[in-house]
Amino acid sequence: MTYRVMLRMEIKEGMGREFETVWVAIGDSVTSHPANLGQWLSRSEDETGVYYIVSDWVDESGFRQFEKSERHIEHRQKLHPYRSGGGMYTMQVVAHVPSSKGPATHEEWEAAR
User: Fold this and answer.
1) Closest of 14, 86, 79 to residue 51, by C-alpha
2) Could you tell me the CATH number of the domain that includes residue 85?
3) Residue (of 22, 23, 26, 30) closest to 65 by Cα position
């Protein structure tokens, strides 16, 4: 089953938009790793300056290999100037119930709204 990592990142005041831009620009340093299945960046609507990053991995060992890599260290260094706090949570996905209907792409979803 998929191994999921969720980061809660507290971003310094006034740096949110720049953080988002840098996160997208350097995202392939994570997603190009063979064990990575994709990642998502979300901004909290309840807490100012709080972001959640979710990344899925083929297994825990693949994630741990990435976590110890030079690539990960460089990625963290580029995001560190924006961060004021946060935490990491890891989990094993135990079930997935896909949508039986609905838009296949973000563009189709937006058009249906």
Assistant:
1) 86
2) 3.30.70.100
3) 30
> Tokens 């979710």 appear where?
54
Place of tokens 């838009």: 103
The three-class DSSP label of residue 59 is coil
Q: Which two tokens stand for residue 38?
A: 């994709």
Q: Encode pLDDT of 21-70 as tens digits.
A: 999 999 999 999 999 999 999 999 999 999 999 999 999 999 999 999 99
Residues 6+ positions from 103 with CB-CB distance below 8 Å: 109, 111, 112
Cβ–Cβ < 8 Å for 21, 41:
no
- Count how many domains the chain has: 1
CB contact at 8 A, 68 and 18: no
Q: What is the CA radius of gyration of the chain?
A: 15
CB 83 within 8 A of CB 10: yes
Domain coverage including residue 27: 3-112
